[in-house]
Design goal:
241 residues; alpha+beta; mRNA Triphosphatase Cet1, Chain A; 12-stranded antiparallel sheet; 6 helices
């Protein structure tokens, strides 16, 4: 078992970029950034996530209605790892906190994808992250609701430990037959195939060198939740996002 609590004062900026611009942006940032060591030979790594929600999409509506404090539970798999990060992503206004706990894939399926929680107490039931996940699971009557997948190319700022820059390409969603063992089918396109999502994640302020580069490329900023956009596209015809 592994647990991780990230800094509370986390902020995110998101932009849409054309695939052809990614290498130009990376080259322009030059010595200011270093590649994430997890980037593979093709320059990135695959991410597959399954989000939990209630039967009436309570977490989705909290986002759409603009609640200042909201939480959601997701399960994230990196590449072909047999370890799954169970995460609580919490937002208070513009700040984000992520708390997470790592379990083996088979155990995640047994406990959370089987259709009902086990009656017996779990061996690590005293873990605070697990306690919160179980509380939310029971309070909202959560169940696996939507999958998303994409290829991520990630970078860190060379001299600022709290700054991270990522490019997500081939962003797709999976509304049914959800499993973390293999990506669900059919896959549906979340954004245009020739576009990527650039995310800037930071704790306090965006450095001047990055502000200048973003301004130079005239990137359109977006406010987008991959989960909510997927739910909206699948069940509400894209009416709300």
């Amino acid at each position: 078992m592994a647990r991780e609590i990230k800094d509370f004062n986390r902020l995110e900026l998101k932009y849409v970029v054309h695939h052809d611009m990614i290498q130009r942006i990376v080259s322009a940032l030059g010595e200011y950034i270093v590649p994430d060591p997890n980037n593979g030979p093709d320059g990135g790594y695959p991410i597959y996530s399954v989000y939990a929600d209630s039967p009436n999409f309570a977490c989705f509506w909290e986002k759409i209605e603009g609640l200042k404090f909201r939480r959601k539970v997701r399960f994230r798999r990196y590449g072909e790892s047999d370890q799954i990060w169970m995460e609580i992503k919490q937002r208070i206004d513009r700040t984000v906190q992520k708390r997470r706990l790592r379990w083996p894939l088979e155990r995640v399926h047994e406990v959370f994808f089987s259709g009902r929680l086990p009656e017996e107490e779990l061996p690590d039931a005293d873990d605070r992250v697990l306690q919160e996940i179980l509380f939310l699971w029971r309070h909202y009557d959560l169940r696996p609701t939507m999958g998303t997948s994409y290829q991520r190319q990630a970078y860190f700022a060379a001299n600022e430990s709290d700054l991270r820059i990522t490019f997500d390409t081939r962003v797709q969603f999976h509304p049914s037959n959800l499993t973390l063992s293999a990506r669900a089918v059919p896959e549906k396109v979340l954004i245009a195939p020739d576009q990527s999502i650039l995310e800037v994640k930071y704790n306090h302020t965006v450095p001047l060198w990055l502000i200048r580069q973003i301004a130079a490329f005239d990137l359109p900023m977006i406010r987008m939740s991959k989960y909510c956009t997927a739910v909206d596209k699948e069940y509400f015809g894209g009416e709300f996002t």
